[in-house]
Write a structure and sequence with these properties.
The protein has 251 residues and is an alpha/beta fold. It contains nine helices and ten strands.
Length: 251
């Protein structure tokens, strides 16, 4: 029962456009993705946990899990719940010593966690193969309410207005909605789209999202003279509107 708990959130920074603005107290750790920021973030999180007498912390994904683990090394009056939705990302994006270090710290976090929440059985199988006891893993599949407004297709007039606003009228639109990261395969998409242009010159690729791989994507676009054909738009709210204007979505 959510009414039995007080909820607060700690985020990397509050400048992110997708951070919720109402109903929950937001603590800004004001950090980036770097080793030193892991320790800075952990110290700031520790102070928040101690000051507010937090009993449970839910850390979602790899680096937030490490930050929570570091904070709870000193603030022991708290249980860690880990949300784990990535599968074999570490094995694909790293190798050698870095992979061994990543897996070592991941294992420390997993062992410290009271429970690990997974959305799929394939992630559970991987966790068990890594030595995590099955009784600390909870399966909670992703829930989608398709009656929600964000899944509603917008009307044709609004589609045309949005296309006009974006300067994309009369083009065949290919959409990609994803974090910019090697695991998402966006360079493969760009390579394929370049070939696709040979038979569909009116095509335009619209990429909505952001992430640490954006500079690599932008470099490829520039080196292959695709600036006219690829539009990178960053993070967007109301993504369903942008999905509605696409002729095809590549995910």
């Amino acid at each position: 029962n959510k009414n039995k708990f007080d909820f607060e959130a700690a985020v990397y920074n509050t400048n992110h456009p997708l951070i919720p603005r109402g109903g929950v107290a937001i603590h800004d750790l004001n950090i980036r993705h770097s080793v030193i920021d892991l320790f800075i973030g952990a110290w700031r999180l520790y102070r928040i946990l101690k000051k507010n007498n937090i009993k449970i912390i839910h850390a979602h994904h790899y680096y937030p899990g490490i930050i929570a683990w570091l904070a709870c090394l000193f603030y022991t009056n708290c249980q860690i719940i880990i949300g784990r939705h990535y599968h074999n990302e570490l094995y694909i994006t790293t190798k050698g010593l870095k992979l061994r270090l990543d897996l070592f710290f991941e294992n420390l976090v997993n062992q410290k966690a009271t429970y690990i929440i997974s959305p799929s059985t394939i992630i559970i199988d991987l966790l068990i193969a890594q030595g995590i006891k099955s009784d600390k893993i909870i399966l909670i599949p992703y829930g989608f309410d398709f009656s929600d407004v964000k899944y509603t297709k917008i009307e044709s007039q609004e589609i045309q207005e949005l296309k006009h606003e974006l300067g994309l009228t009369n083009y065949y639109l290919v959409g990609n909605f994803s974090r910019h990261h090697p695991i998402k395969g966006q360079l493969y998409l760009l390579q394929s789209f370049k070939i696709f242009l040979q038979t569909c010159a009116s095509a335009r690729l619209v990429m909505i999202g952001d992430g640490p791989y954006r500079n690599v994507i932008e470099k490829y676009i520039a080196e292959n003279e695709l600036e006219e054909y690829v539009k990178i738009m960053g993070w967007k709210n109301e993504v369903y509107k942008y999905m509605s204007i696409m002729d095809i979505i590549v995910h």
